[in-house]
Write a structure and sequence with these properties.
Distance between the termini: 15 Å
Radius of gyration: 19 Å
Number of strands: 12
Largest sheet: 6 strands, mixed
Strand order of the largest sheet: 6-7-8-3-9-10
Order of helices and strands: EEEHEEHEHHHEHEHEEHEEH
Strand content: 25-35%
Helix content: 25-40%
Number of helices: 9
CATH architecture of one domain: 3-Layer(aba) Sandwich
Low-confidence stretches: 1-8
Oligomer: single chain
CATH superfamily of one domain: P-loop containing nucleotide triphosphate hydrolases
Length: about 260
């Protein structure tokens, strides 16, 4: 595993020796990683490797069996309320109320977060996510992309220090996906820490400051894209130099582990 640079920065997430089993099935076998405050951290892995399990543990929705997990300085087991107050979560499926309008969904979340200017917060987010024209329509009439944008907008209510995005662009068309990428980059640019899980390797390549690959219950690689590229064989030179894509790196690393 690539080593992290010296710990001279504030750490938003610190995970050491994290283990989790479902009955007799061991999902996480001792996961270790840290996430720098204000960065975009991408967790990659095949289906069933435990990406969502890690997200659920870090957001206090699931208890781990062993190890430690600290989020924004708070232990997820001993101080779960403080963890929840400092984070937002967008899961794999849009968690919106289809009976309400887009504006009503956002106002509801703002009030739950005890914000005084809930209507203004809603209007600002509707504008930012291109949903103003559909603000007073019931969410049941929204397209899949519109629901996903609303879902992400709801996670931004209250300006949380840390946002978890569990496969945020699954099911979106390419145009909507690029739009979400832009919002994620803006969040990081404004100092928000983003923890991202994805199956789209291009997504991690475009967004992440640091990328970790989860395989067989462990983080087998953790580094920048440039560091991961150094693990790949030298570029093939024909008429031009061909640099490996993140997808090629991922398959090569996972394949080596399985052979061993």
């Amino acid at each position: 595993m690539l080593q992290n640079e010296p710990n001279s920065y504030r750490v938003a997430i610190s995970v050491h020796g994290l283990k989790k089993s479902y009955k007799s099935v061991l999902v996480l076998e001792g996961v270790d990683f840290e996430v720098k405050t204000g960065s975009i951290f991408a967790l990659l892995g095949s289906n069933g490797t435990g990406k969502t399990t890690i997200v659920k543990i870090l957001t206090t929705l699931l208890k781990h069996d062993d190890g430690t997990a600290v989020v924004n300085g708070f232990n997820v087991v001993t101080n779960p309320d403080r963890v929840r107050q400092s984070i937002s979560l967008t899961g794999q499926f849009a968690a919106v109320d289809e009976i309400l309008t887009g504006r009503e969904n956002l106002i509801m979340i703002a009030r739950l977060r005890h914000l005084k200017n809930s209507r203004q917060v809603a209007d600002d987010l509707l504008k930012r996510f291109g949903l103003t024209d559909a603000a007073d329509r019931k969410v049941s009439t929204y397209s899949g992309g519109m629901r996903r944008r609303l879902d992400i907008a709801m996670s931004l209510v209250g300006e949380s220090q840390l946002i978890f995005l569990d496969e945020p662009t699954t099911g979106l068309d390419p145009e909507a996906r690029i739009e979400v990428w832009k919002f994620i980059k803006e969040l990081s640019g404004n100092g928000t820490t983003v923890f991202l899980t994805t199956q789209y390797l291009e997504e991690a390549e475009q967004l992440a400051d640091r990328i970790a690959i989860l395989h067989n219950g462990r983080i087998i690689v953790n580094g920048t894209l440039a560091e991961l590229k150094k693990l790949f064989p030298p570029a093939k030179v024909e008429y031009i130099e061909k640099q490996p894509t993140l997808e090629e790196i991922f398959l090569a690393i996972v394949g080596k582990k399985e052979e061993n």
